[in-house]
Design brief:
Elements (H helix, E strand, L loop, with lengths): L1 H18 L2 H4 L6 E7 L13 H8 L3 E3 L2 E2 L5 H10 L3 H4 L11 H6 L7 H7 L3 E6 L20 E5 L9 E6 L5 E4 L3 H18 L4 E6 L6 E5 L8 E5 L41 H34 L6 E7 L19 H4 L3 E4 L7 E3 L3 E2 L3 H8 L17 H10 L3 E6 L20 E8 L2 E8 L4 E5 L25 E2 L2 E2 H15 L5 H4 L2 H4 L8 H4 L5 H7 L45
Parallel strand pairs: 1-8, 1-11, 2-13, 3-14, 4-5, 4-8
Antiparallel strand pairs: 2-12, 5-6, 6-7, 9-10, 11-12, 15-16, 16-17, 17-18, 19-20
Helix pairs in contact: 3-9, 8-9
Length: 592
């Protein structure tokens, strides 16, 4: 009888359960994130074409954001922007080494208590990280203090971060450990798998970052950025031995911008000499070594997906793949490197896969590294912060379609200081003047890049007719047959166009928060203008061409972020005067 009664009771429980709303039976699982962040990976030299596992697991199963941009095209400032959601002029981390950058600068600006890993832990996420965090995170200062916000970590440390065969990692609170003779990406892969195992065993939602240093060049560092006179020796990336003979006949894509016959660009770039055959041959070798170094990263991606499948986590995990900045080799006669504002350096891979993400899809909506921290928070159901300079990225097909008309069309691009060549051929030291403010803007019927250098030279490229950025529309030196006053874009004369984009750049170069996201509202608080095309209407000619006389300019070229050198700053109309914009007497907080 007891067994019969038990059966009836069990049947009653089952019946009752069927009547209870599903959300009351068990809380939905919070999603996990795996973020794979490579170092210096290009979007324009076809590197993704040589990564079959990235294609299989990510491109074929996720969404490719083809117009994703970093905002400062060098490692440390870009990574700080990525982890904080703030542009470099708002983090004040603008270089890879002290005094203007590196891990010590990150610490001094107070971000160790106020960045994404900390916010994730506050939201009850476990956080794990292996690989490169920041430059000048070293065997000497790794614990002064420890990076906050990690449940478990295993960081690459300087001066061995970029030594493919002599890496040093530092795990949790343990002392650094050397892996001399072992291949860095393979060591990192094992650490990533271990951290994934730990994350799963903890039975809590997790955020795991895997940050290999490939395909960055190999660097022997005799000292670090903490030393007075460190000596760095650059060479091509080093692949794992099993990959060293791949792609023997591959060459850098011979696009029109590769080692062009005629100089282009502005400032020090237009002074570069054309590379001879020996130089070109070496750079082809450098390119092949980058592709070979990425093969171990590709295998790492496959290893992570294999384990996610074994753990049955693929239906509840978002996998995001990106890089800190892009890369050039030979374009505009440049030696291997980054640090410029051209498309090769600022346009970087971004691929997202996960629940609700469209498969085998791509989009050209504009996104930037300032958007990643807000995206991660929104994805995980964590409230957004008011001081983000970026907006969450549309992820579902419906969101992407809506964003075609609603999302911002601009990228703020900025850089300070030195541009280093990373091959065996160096270039003129005028590269110390590599400070500029720039604007990348893509809308319906227009696709532009505009920059102002610290020597106050200007560049403008119409990337619909000149996608390789070879013909600076504002330089009679490189375009002797071009009269800027006779050129048109959208049937608009260039002076009229420049008045708009110069005003937009003036806002963006010192923007904060929502002003960075919706800069046209700073110029038109009534909200009647939200795109460049709107601003080009004739009704605004007097406002831009007569009223707004203050333009972007520099007082001098300096190595870091110095307001004294930055020229006039955009001021909020708070009654304090200055060079800011006031429109129809409307107060700034009327719309913020």
């Amino acid at each position: 009888m007891r067994s019969l009664a038990w059966l009836f009771m069990l049947a009653g429980l089952v019946a009752t359960k069927s009547l209870v709303p599903q959300q009351l039976l068990a809380a939905p699982r919070r999603p996990n994130v795996i973020f794979i962040l490579t170092d210096d990976q290009d979007a324009h030299l076809n590197s993704l074409d040589y990564m079959p596992y990235v294609k299989k697991h990510l491109l074929d199963k996720g969404t490719h954001y083809r117009s994703h941009y970093c905002t400062t095209s060098v490692c440390c400032p870009s990574r700080v922007t990525l982890w904080t959601g703030k542009l470099a002029h708002n983090t004040n981390v603008t270089d890879v080494n002290p005094p203007y950058g590196g891990y010590p600068k990150f610490i001094s600006q107070g971000f160790n208590e106020n960045y994404l890993p900390v916010w994730l832990q506050e939201a009850q996420y476990n956080t794990y990280y292996t690989g490169k965090l920041f430059n000048v995170h070293t065997v000497e200062n790794y614990n002064a203090p420890f990076p906050a916000g990690f449940t478990g970590h295993d960081f690459l440390l300087d001066p061995f971060t970029y030594d493919y065969l002599n890496s040093t990692f530092q795990r949790d609170r343990e002392p650094p450990e050397s892996y001399e003779g072992e291949y860095s990406t393979d060591v990192l892969a094992q650490k990533a798998y271990r951290l994934l195992d730990e994350a799963v065993s903890a039975q809590k939602p997790f955020f795991l970052t895997v940050a290999p240093m490939a395909p960055h060049c190999n660097v022997f560092m005799n000292g670090t950025g903490l030393d007075d006179n460190p000596v760095f020796s650059f060479s091509a990336p080093i692949p794992a031995k099993r990959h060293e003979h791949l792609f023997p006949d591959i060459r850098i894509p011979r696009t029109p911008s590769f080692n062009p016959e005629h100089p282009s660009g502005a400032n020090w770039i237009k002074t570069l000499k054309r590379q001879n055959d020996t130089n070109v041959e070496y750079n082809d070798h450098f390119y092949r070594m980058r592709l070979r170094a990425l093969q171990a990263v590709d295998e790492l991606v496959d290893g992570l997906f294999t384990r996610l499948h074994e753990y049955n986590l693929l239906d509840n995990t978002y996998i995001v793949y990106s890089s800190d900045n892009g890369y050039h080799i030979g374009q505009r006669r440049l030696q291997p490197g980054k640090s410029c504002g051209y498309e090769e350096d600022i346009n970087v891979p971004l691929i997202v896969r996960g629940p609700g993400i469209a498969e085998n899809a791509s989009t050209d909506i504009v996104t930037t590294h300032t958007d990643l921290a807000p995206t991660f928070l929104q994805l995980l159901g964590i409230p957004l912060r008011d001081d983000f300079d970026g907006d969450p990225i549309p992820l579902t097909q419906g969101q992407i379609e809506a964003a075609q008309d609603e999302r911002q069309e601009h990228v703020t691009v900025e850089y300070w200081g030195f541009a280093a060549g990373e091959g065996i051929y160096d270039f003129d030291l005028s590269a110390y003047n590599n400070t500029y403010k720039a604007l990348r803007i893509k809308g319906k019927g227009y696709n532009l890049y505009y920059s102002v250098w610290c020597n106050n030279e200007h560049e403008l490229y119409d990337m619909i007719t000149d996608p390789h950025q070879l013909h600076n529309l504002l330089s009679p030196d490189t375009n002797p047959d071009t009269n800027p006053d006779l050129c048109t874009i959208l049937n608009i004369p260039l002076p009229k166009l420049i008045s708009r984009i110069d005003s937009l750049l003036f806002v963006l170069k010192s923007c904060k928060g929502q002003v960075c996201i919706k800069p046209w509202r700073a110029l038109h608080p009534g909200g009647e203008v939200s795109t460049l095309k709107d601003a080009l209407h004739a009704r605004y000619d007097h406002f831009y061409e007569v009223e707004q006389t203050t333009r972007v300019r520099f007082e001098e070229c300096v190595r870091g972020y110095s307001l004294e050198a930055e020229g006039p700053q955009f001021d909020l109309p708070d009654g304090n005067g200055g060079n800011g914009f006031v429109r129809d007497g409307l107060a700034w907080d009327a719309w913020v």
